[in-house]
Amino acid sequence: MSKSSANTLLKSTFVYAIGNVSSKLISFLLVPIISFYLTKSDLGIYDLVITGLNLLVPIFTIQISNGVYRWLLDFNRKIKISRRVIFTGLIINLIGIFLFAVLYLIFYKLFNIVLDPLIAILLVASNSLFTFFQFVIRGIAKNKFFSISGIVNSVFLLLFNTILLAYFKLGLNSLFYAIIFSNLIATLYLIIKIDFRDFFSFSFLNGKIAKRMANYSVPLIPNQISWWLINASDKFIILAVLSTEMNGIYAISSRFPSIMILLNSIFIMAWQDYTITDKKNDISENTKIFNRYMTLQFSLLFILVPTSEFLVKALVDHKFYESYKYMPLLYLSVVFSSLAGYYGAIYLRSKNTKGIFFTSFLGGIINVIIAYTLMPVIGLYASCWGSVISFMVVLALRIHQTKETINLNFPFKKFGILMSLSFGIILFTLFGNHLINIILAFLGLSYFIFINKSMITNLIKRTKNI
Predict the structure, then answer these.
(1) What is the Cα–Cα distance from 327 to 325, expressed in whole angstroms?
(2) Over the stretch 64-111, which tens digit does the pLDDT of each residue have?
(3) In sequence order, which residues have a C-beta less than 8 Å from that of residue 202 and are 6 or more positions away?
(4) Distance from C-alpha of 80 to C-alpha of 276, rounded to nearest angstrom
């Protein structure tokens, strides 16, 4: 891998890390607060609401944020086209929010939905607008402001959650209000940094650009639905087969793997920028990047799996104690998800969004079948195994489909060794004792430092420079 390519990718990764670390760290810090003030049932309901809205936002906004981001990367030096892309995308986004509001009010009246319409509409609006302007800021290569917006959002999320839960005692609604307020404040920050006055004019509304971006973005909707089937449909199956209390347990279990999802999301954003704009497509560079990324994911798993029970005991209210049992398999599913996400960026390079959909859809169907079939027998473990197996299938399909798009030799032998070690550690963790887990955690940390020492050294140097 050339020095310039490595520096470009490392620089992007580091910039994205600044914003994402704060976001995921705050989310992680909220776990003990939420677990103390909410019941298992309340937390289960909250998780269902957010899960449902996360599905609806990309549907109503037709994933236009992705289209805007992709087109801005191609035309960010052509100011006139950039203005048309941003304003056209915003109008499509606002139309989607309006349609959601109308339909939600109708369904609210017809079916007596529990969630207040104002909260639901503001959750969707604030989430979609914040996401839209984050993609805009990435598309115009102002990644520093992207990172700062993540910090702004995270700080206010922690602040509002703490005040509304602990002081005003608003219970479940505290979490919804905190998300809305923090999203709106962070969105306002991005609008100021973009200097949106230069882009706000109906003369920039362009039908041709809208059609081209929609043709790119719309196939991402079924992909998003499919990804939702893998990541989130379990929660509704748990509600149907088990209970809201068990959904609360699963919600806590899935919070901890956010440590890995954090690093995954940081790198994937940088990798998207890199692979879309890279013209060389060098096989040795691509293979080295993937090797390092895969090694990082597994080495993190080697640390986190043995510490699962200790983390739950230290950070979560005792009523959620059993959640640690499901975390090891969820960590493994995140590894497969991150590797599949790596290959997902390759589809964006060729604008082959239909390929993303097919792999995600098949993975989603597999997850639903496994979870629904096995849950009456093995409980929450069905969701965990469904996630692991479905992401394995998605990864395998994407490796096969992208052979012609990118020059990359998948390290099957190394992957097999790391997989075997992972299953061994998971078995020892679930059926061993505290001493074994401590030893495994120490060995995992030693391996992590040794195998990633060059990356750690570079990050320390870059931090010192800043």
Answers:
(1) 6
(2) 888 888 888 776 666 667 788 888 999 999 999 999 999 999 998 888
(3) 87
(4) 22
DSSP-derived secondary structure letter, 2: -
Is residue 282 scored above 90 in pLDDT? no
Q: Burial level of 114, CB count in 10 A (0-12/13-18/19+)? A: exposed
* Average pLDDT of every residue of the chain: 80
Give the residue from 316, 302, 296 showing the smallest Cα distance to 256: 316
Secondary structure class of 380 (helix, strand, coil): coil
How far is CA 133 from each of CA 149, 382, 386, rounded to the nearest angstrom?
A: 10, 37, 34
**3 state DSSP class of 94:** helix
pTM of the entire predicted model: 0.70
- Among positive and negative, which fits the CA dihedral 271, 274, 277, 281? negative
One-letter identity of residue 160:
F
- Helices 40-60 and 233-241 pack at an angle, to 10 degrees, of 140
Axis-axis angle for helices 434-451, 453-465 (nearest 10): 70
Q: What is the CA radius of gyration of the chain?
A: 22
- pLDDT of res. 419: 92
CB 305 within 8 A of CB 328: yes
Q: For residues 76 and 65, what is the distance between their CA atoms, to the nearest angstrom?
A: 15
Cβ-proximal residues to 324 (8 Å cutoff; 6+ apart), any chain: 253, 308, 309, 311, 312, 313
**Rounded to an integer, what distance in angstroms lies between the CA atom of residue 217 and that of residue 353?**
8
DSSP 3-state of 179: helix
Tokens encoding 168 = 């005003």
DSSP 135-173: HHHHHTT-HHHHHHHHHHHHHHHHHHHHIIIIIS--THH
